[in-house]
């Protein structure tokens, strides 16, 4: 399909969707207030999805998975139905097992469905098993088929089909990107001679700066660097092959070494040139400085353990403040001063941009800031001075022990990989949030206010005598949105969900409430949660391989070790319009990064090869 036709079709779809939302807004305004209040939360969800392209894209992929998921769920329910029939006939109403769990085919289906979630095992089989151990054959064979086989088969199907859908989506994205770049090239090629000249390229940057909010403002100096990187031939003209790398260049962060100077070097050059500061800089950049901070963390941990020795061994009788405790707190303050000095020294030496650009230093800064805030709050006159505050301060400080774990290469690889996939996986968690929000709104509208601790309520005696009441589950209810989210999160964990369900059966007097809990388990756990797991597994495996490769120094173009940063001399690019030392950085975690990192490597490999 031509690019213009594709763009027009996309525009028409967007226009149609927003027209629908506009009409829905008018409808909500015209409806009676009671009905309008019920429907507004659903309209908010639609607006959120409409303004979040990543969520909308993932929801489309999920819809494409439904036919395959429906096939496996059909087999699952067929197995449950057959075993329910078998169990009803086997145990009958005369036995304790039959009366409790298999009194009818419907009751048998519910008992076996609960068994699939493992929420009632082994309780569901104990009456029959206590009388005849052969009953285990019925229950174990059902679990092997319905849970171990079918549930894992569903996970495999979700993972495999989602992978296929994503590959198809990525293929279409790349195809459309190339098509759009070729169309843009034909527009910028004003003389129709197969090349774009610099005035047109500069106009393109002007349009991006003025009209594309998703792209950070690109100053003139960076524009020249980007154009020089693209201009492999060095003739200040860009042919189609060179222009096709334009998007890749936009995805690379270029920064002049001049802007990455340390705070002291940039603001106080005379102080920076002094022998004293040169010695300080050498000390901060030396490995021994890292060892010193690590040793301070270990000593601080030992001090905290001594402070908490009574609580750690279960003796809470020695909680009063005394002279030794005050000394320990002062030692804590000394350690805090050391960690604050570490932050200040690093910023003074490497500069704020480089410091904040490191995830590890960023984490250290946040922990140190929280520790300082809590300490100041504790020591200020008139503030709350309780031991719990002190313990919170100490626990926050202990988070920095993560850096010791990250010093081990195997853990560092895992930590860096997790850091990279968090932005990518966030959109799947947003999908999970949307599904949970939908069910939460429905629960508040239909079941809100049903649970009450008012003794005058007709269902209160039965509720109090049930597992819901004896377990003190009264706070687990759908009376408001926050409570609904908590209950649904518990359902995602699949722990004691039957207690909440039984409570709502009592207060509503209907077993239809089971449909709500079962449907959320199917959608939230079997489909969306499995999809989240699949997404995390795939993203982690991709980024883990990239991280391993980068640490082995694979790749070209000077991108070794970390393989995310390339340092180069702009004058060597041959443009003549820009000079000085520059760095090019790829933030791999933004879009699943292995592809982006390879773009950086290939870009400079191409430059190096053309220069020979």
UniProtKB/TrEMBL annotation:
Residues 9-167, 287-546 form the Ion transport domain. The keyword Transmembrane helix applies. It holds the Pfam family Ion_trans. Its main location: membrane. Keywords: Calcium, Ion channel, Ion transport, Membrane, Repeat, Transmembrane, Transmembrane helix, Transport. It comes from the Eukaryota. InterPro entries: EF-hand-dom_pair (IPR011992), Ion_trans_dom (IPR005821), TPC1_plant (IPR044581), Volt_channel_dom_sf (IPR027359). It is a multi-pass membrane protein. SUPFAM superfamilies: EF-hand (SSF47473), Voltage-gated potassium channels (SSF81324). It is found in: Membrane. The chain crosses the membrane at residues 16-39, 72-92, 104-122, 134-159, 289-306, 326-349, 361-381, 401-422, 429-453, 473-494, 515-537. PANTHER family: TWO PORE CALCIUM CHANNEL PROTEIN 1. This is Ion transport domain-containing protein. The lineage of its organism: Eukaryota, Sar, Stramenopiles, Ochrophyta, Bolidophyceae.
């Amino acid at each position: 399909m031509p690019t213009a036709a594709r763009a027009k079709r996309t525009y028409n779809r967007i226009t149609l969707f927003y027209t629908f939302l506009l009409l829905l807004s008018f409808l909500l305004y015209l409806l009676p207030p009671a009905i309008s209040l019920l429907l507004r939360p659903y309209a908010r969800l639609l607006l959120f999805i409409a303004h979040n392209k990543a969520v909308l894209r993932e929801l489309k992929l999920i819809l494409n998975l439904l036919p395959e998921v429906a096939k496996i769920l059909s087999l699952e329910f067929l197995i449950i139905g057959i075993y329910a029939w078998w169990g009803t006939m086997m145990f009958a109403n005369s036995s304790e097992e039959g009366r409790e769990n298999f009194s009818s085919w419907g009751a048998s289906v519910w008992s076996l469905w609960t068994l699939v979630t493992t929420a009632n095992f082994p309780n569901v089989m104990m009456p029959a098993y206590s009388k005849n151990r052969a009953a285990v054959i019925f229950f174990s064979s059902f679990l092997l088929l319905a849970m171990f086989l079918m549930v894992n088969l569903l996970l495999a199907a979700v993972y495999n089909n989602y992978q296929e859908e994503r590959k198809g989506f990525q293929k279409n994205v790349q195809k459309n990107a190339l098509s759009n770049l070729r169309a843009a090239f034909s527009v910028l090629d004003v003389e129709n001679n197969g090349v774009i000249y610099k005035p047109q390229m500069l106009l393109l940057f002007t349009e991006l700066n003025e009209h594309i909010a998703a792209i950070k403002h690109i100053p003139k100096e960076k524009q020249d660097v980007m154009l020089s990187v693209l201009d492999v031939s060095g003739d200040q003209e860009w042919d189609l092959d060179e222009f096709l790398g334009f998007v890749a260049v936009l995805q690379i962060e270029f920064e002049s070494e001049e802007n990455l100077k340390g705070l002291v070097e940039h603001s106080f050059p005379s102080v920076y040139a002094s022998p004293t500061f040169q010695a300080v800089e050498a000390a901060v950049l030396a490995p021994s400085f890292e060892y010193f901070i690590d040793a301070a963390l270990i000593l601080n941990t030992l001090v905290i353990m001594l402070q908490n020795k009574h609580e750690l061994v279960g003796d809470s009788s020695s909680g009063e403040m005394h002279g030794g405790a005050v000394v320990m707190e002062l030692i804590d303050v000394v350690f805090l001063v050391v960690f604050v000095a570490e932050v200040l020294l690093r910023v003074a030496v490497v500069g704020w941009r480089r410091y904040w650009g490191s995830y590890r230093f960023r984490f250290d800064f946040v922990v140190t800031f929280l520790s300082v805030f809590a300490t100041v709050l504790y020591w200020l006159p008139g503030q709350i001075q309780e031991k719990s505050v002190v313990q919170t301060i100490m626990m926050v400080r202990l988070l920095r022990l993560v850096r010791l774990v990250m010093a081990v290469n195997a853990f560092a690889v895992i930590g860096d990989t997790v850091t990279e996939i968090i932005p990518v996986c966030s959109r799947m968690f947003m999908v999970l949030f949307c599904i949970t929000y939908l069910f939460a709104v429905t629960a508040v509208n239909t079941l809100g206010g049903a649970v009450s601790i008012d003794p005058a309520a007709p269902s209160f005696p039965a509720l109090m005598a049930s597992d819901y009441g004896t377990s003190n589950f009264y706070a687990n209810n759908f009376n408001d949105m926050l409570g609904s989210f908590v209950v649904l999160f518990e359902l995602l964990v699949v722990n004691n969900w039957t207690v909440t369900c039984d409570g709502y059966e009592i207060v509503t007097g209907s077993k239809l409430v089971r449909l709500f809990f079962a449907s959320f388990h199917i959608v939230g756990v079997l489909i969306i949660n499995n999809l989240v797991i699949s997404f995390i597994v795939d993203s982690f495996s991709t980024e883990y391989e990239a991280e391993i490769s980068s640490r082995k120094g694979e790749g070209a173009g000077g991108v070794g070790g970390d393989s995310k940063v390339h340092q180069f001399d702009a004058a060597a690019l041959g443009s003549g319009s820009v000079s000085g030392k520059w760095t090019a950085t790829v933030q791999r975690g933004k879009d699943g990064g292995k592809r982006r990192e390879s773009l950086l490597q290939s870009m400079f490999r191409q430059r190096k090869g053309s220069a020979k």
